[in-house]
């Protein structure tokens, strides 16, 4: 990868930390070999069901302020980035739900030579779960947690080689910071190992074979949720033309619990991500997956199937729209609970200047559940102003 391409890739991603809809081109302050990229996002909106409650709906005006700064450096074919973001949310009609989150993420892309590449990531994140968004019960304020993680991706093989090997490893420490009496049982560590072999079957198409193993270890010595997940996947990845790209995988997944009181699970698993651009200014996306997710209070685990279709269209150099339609089906293993969540998101983005954009968005969520008090409808409106240098 050329050094210029590395810089563009790193700088171009910074807008995604604020909102995926914006299309500003932030400038940087250069200090020696380091480029400093500040950015500020201000959101004002309305949520008509902030607790996602079926019968006792409460609405509120919401203001979210998100400043961020990136430090980007490069050396020959290597590139480095450190990103700090602060997010402060204020609920006008429910001050108990106010929050302040922040994250610090460091990334390194190292082209060791034409056949060897290493990507490293480390992050420290202070985040929260909105009240009513989990099964552990509604607290007096949002449940807060800290995520500390490290990850590495090693790729062997030249770009045009017949075969390539990719190895991944990551460690995540997930710890709740408040209301420990009800949240302590959810503290855990995740250790992931992944190996994927790519074999070129056409100039722009590769077959792939992947083995993924994750060990999930809960902190409480009395927990019976410790388990391992293993996936065996085969598929294809392609970038055949300027109009279409993507990947599709299908295989077998199993979730095995250490405790015999929990029921092991297995079955078909899939991951699909496709992009189709019939015109340079119009792009369609399709994503689908099956995953076992950790429970937040009910059942052994959650068998989750998700599907989404997106459309992004630029009507002019300044005006673009985006739309997303999604469905998530959740089956609570070890329980009779079944949830279906449909979501529609519509957005309009206007680039006022190279460094300033405004986004209008509307999100409708409809959740149906056979569990009492878990169904709800929600409407969210948001105006987002994003600025940079």
Report on this structure.
The protein is mainly β and 389 residues long. It is 4% helix and 67% strand. It has an 18-stranded antiparallel beta barrel. The protein is globular. 16% of the residues are buried. The model is unreliable at 1-21 (pLDDT under 50).
Q: Say what oligomer this is.
A: single chain
Helix content: under 10%
What share of residues are in beta strands?
over 45%
Number-wise, the strands total: 19
- CATH class (first level) name: Mainly Beta
Q: Globular, elongated, flat, extended or rod-shaped: what is the shape?
A: globular
- CATH topology label: Porin
Helices, by number, come to 2
Quickly count the domains: 1
- Unreliable residue stretches: 1-21
Structural class based on helices, strands and sheet pairing: mainly beta
**SSE string, helices as H and strands as E:** HEEEEEEEEHEEEEEEEEEEE
Tell me what the CATH architecture is: Beta Barrel
Q: Using only CA atoms, what is the Rg?
A: 22 Å
Largest sheet: 18 strands, antiparallel, barrel
Mean pLDDT equals 92
The termini sit apart by 27 Å
